[in-house]
Description:
The complex is a heterodimer.
Chain A lengths: L4 H9 L3 H35 L2 H50 L2 H5 L3 H43 L1 H9 L1 H38 L1 H6 L3 H53 L5 H43 L19 E9 L5 E10 L4 E5 L6 H8 L7 E6 L2 E2 L5 H6 L1 E5 L7 E2 H6 L7 H10 L3 H6 L7 E2 L8 H13 L5 E5 L7 H15 L3 E5 L3 H4 L4 E6 L2 E6 L1 H6 L3 H6 L1 H21 L1
Parallel strand pairs in A: 3-10, 3-11, 6-9, 9-10
Antiparallel strand pairs in A: 1-2, 1-4, 4-5, 7-8, 11-12
Helix pairs in contact in A: 2-3, 2-5, 2-10, 3-5, 5-6, 5-7, 5-10, 6-9, 7-9, 7-10, 9-10, 14-16, 16-17
Chain B lengths: L4 H4 L2 E9 L9 H14 L13 E8 L2 E13 L4 H17 L7 E7 L7 H15 L4 E6 L2 E12 H6 L9 H13 L8 E7 L7 E7 L5 H11 L4 E2 L2 H6 L5 E2 H7 L6 E5 L2 E5 L1 H7 L17 H10 L11 H13 L3 E4 L2 E4 L7 E7 H7 L2
Parallel strand pairs in B: 5-12, 8-9
Antiparallel strand pairs in B: 1-3, 1-4, 2-3, 4-6, 5-6, 6-15, 7-8, 7-10, 11-12, 11-15, 13-14
Amino acid sequence: MRESLWGRVYHIASPYKMRMVVSMATLLVLTGLGLLSPIWMSILIAEALPGGDRELFIHCILILAGIHIITSLFSFIYSYQMRILGGRLVFDLRRRMYDHLQKLSLGYYESRSSGEIISRMMNDVNAVTSLLTGTVLNTVISSFKALALIGVLFYYNVTVATVAIAVLPLHFLGYFFFRARISHLSWQSSEKMAQIYGKVSEVFGAIKMVKSHSGERRESRSLISQMRESYEIDLHSGNLSKIWGQATGNISYAGEVLVMLVCGFAVLGQELTLQKYIMLMSYVAMLYAPISELIGVVQQILPAKVGIRRVFEVLDTAPEVVDLPDGLRGTLRGDIEFRNVSFAYAQGDQVLRNVSFAAQNGEVVAFVGPSGSGKTTIANLIARFYDRNEGQILIDGRDIQEYQLRTLRDQTSMVLQETYLFRGTLLDNIRYGKPDATMEEIETAARQANAHEFICTLPDGYRSILGSNGTRLSGGQRQRIAIARALIRDPKILILDEATSALDTVSEAKVQEALQHLMKDRTTFVIAHRLSTIKNADKIVVLNEGRVEGIGSHEALFAEDGLYRELYDPEWAKKRSTLREERIRRLAEVA
Amino acid sequence: MIMDKRNAMPVIFDITAHCEPSAHFKFTRRIRNDFDVLAGEYAQSTWMLGSYGGKARLQTDVQGIGVATRMEVGRLSLRQGRRKGLVQNAFEFFREACAKGLGSGPVERILMGFPNASDRPQERELIRQAYVEAFKEECAFLSREQNLLELGHCTVFQSVVQYLREDGLYHSAHRDNIEQVQRHLHQEVGRYENHKFYVRPEKADGPVPKLDFCYTGDRADRGVEAYIEGYTEVCPEFVDPVDFRRDRSRYVRLKDYERASRRFGGLWVLQGDLVRFLSPPQIGILYLFFNEDLQPALDAYFSWEQLRALQEGSQHIDPSLRYSPTFLEVVLEGMTRGGFLVERDGAYRLSPNFAGFQHVSFYELGEYGRVNQ
Lengths: 591, 373
């Protein structure tokens, strides 16, 4: 059975049980010390000063000062423990979330903005930590303090104790009235904040496009509107919390006034001494303080609970691609076979339908077809970013799911149309493919990728820094760095997804030349629209709306007069389409 | 008279209407003011009325370039007797707010939150009645969480058992033709605007049902037939509108057939008045309760060990999940909570009502509107 929310929170905090126990013990000592002060204060005011007892007066002052010093010491110990506890919990939770997020499949990231994910990892984790470090301990201590004070009051005077606790039900009423409202607003506030993060990260990610479409003002207005809403939600939530706090204060004050009346009349009737009056009044004032604290704690718990739920939502998201713990390892040969593979993205239309083809080690297989025909989906399935719905994908005769993900991905490289280069040196970017690569290996990879020449012309060579203030590279140069990064891994399976489609002819020629090196002794899958890129492939798989329309060499497919020829012989395609239209029109007219 | 104690207590409803997003919507001061005025007109006194209990609030959600509005009538605390009227009032408010352009677009979906919503058929019935009276159409409930329902429409296809055996009127063998015709109709909208297209599935001797493509309209159009046949190699047959209306239940919209014949992406199941979604791994687990001839073992209990053994050998479960006891445990727990299975002393069986569960398609309100256009 799945643990309850609080059970899971306990599970997170359990490694720090001892530290929490120490903190709680410290708080208990602080509470005990707090209970001593009224006794000595009442003796000071009611006995030492009226009686002129100098010795008792100094005694009281020394004890009160001692209580203060010990209290300060324990307060420091308590806050020190809390800082450590809070820091470690934040660290643990963020690490756990980050590890989990890395395991989630592409589908998770494609359905959410990065800003939203960041918001959960940063803001919501903070909320969980503040709950565990401050709120939970405060709840325990405040409850203990309140119970202890009620006990003390009953010990000294039953009537006063009864009057003092008579107002407590009003606090519960307030709790029931405000709880759900504040909780709801907390959720809205977190959601809104996540949306704002998402919006900001999206706009900054696409800043070129925004500027080129003069969208700055529109985006700015959109963000301002969201921020205004966030402000209104927070204001509303803050107002409700304040009203609740004020109501709590007023209820407590009413209780104090009642006790003051009862005790005052008792003193006037000489049923109670002045010392006891002072002591009881101090205890009553102290009794309402932890109750107000408890109310405050509830106000903190509500948003924190929202944060916890949002954190667990991420941690509970199961990875769509599951890695077998005892999956196959070792070096792949690179023979790949698709047997009647069908695939649909979650809740979407079917993207691949009964796709079958085979590729042997050393072969170059090209996928061609109109946009949306499923070419990139095949690449995603080979890299196991997703799992197929039906059919089988075999690598070296074994199902792809039998291999450990790491084994598969360590021996697979992808070069995409959009090259992502990290901020850092060129050296580090190439080395990303193989962190332990030597300088010699890096240089060899760069030479094979036709990148060495231009790297050498840069002032800092391989140590040139990429990024906003560093070197700016052309599209072709970036692409060649990406190829070097793929090459350095010496992959058994290589996927080139529109790797050269954005380049000019000169750059493409250089990249193509680099790719020839890359394709040797490995199974290569090429996705491209340009005929020059695919013409020399050993096998061309023609895809249309998720189905395989034909497999063969360039010459064989061209001779078939099918979709392949339609794609690469526009004149012929136009003529055929006109003839077909004409035939159907004639048929319709006859009908 | 003995009163049901739970019904005597007030139930707190949170009703939210999400509008279709729009990149052009601006949440201006005028919209805020107009919305507040309208909300004031519709606000009614409710039990334990809070600072915004029962009164509508407007929020927006920005996702990319689109802004979607969300109208909330929260903390609607209702005793039995007044519930229907007040829920209906909220629905009418949503309708009017959208009609006045106060939302980003038409209502895309409505969510109703109240405690244990999935276990309270009486409350669902009154919501249904309120919806029917406000929007003049039927609605169905999708159980999104234990405490949250989504209102939408559902189309019933066949029994879940038929789906699992694939021996009903909906068969994946026809998908290619259906998709081809659908694509062509989408590409040539203007050419076919005076006609509506359906399929007529009928039982055949083999496992695959017979499927006829039909169209209806004012009159038969040979041109339409020739065009469709020319482009898709499927020749639709004209059905007279009178015959069509008389035998309406025999005809299925292309979109519905396409959805019903899917063997991927999960399964919508109607249990009484509640729709629940089963993901593909959950469907795989359902097959463990079927024998080799795909007959459901409706009365038999399966122990954990038996299920584990069946799981390891099942062709319906993904290879990466076949050996995971955690997966089995989580799915069994979820499906028991969802009313598909019954658990006794650690053994599981199919729900006694399983044979009556229907395979349906759930459409969100906005989606349903678009499909029916």
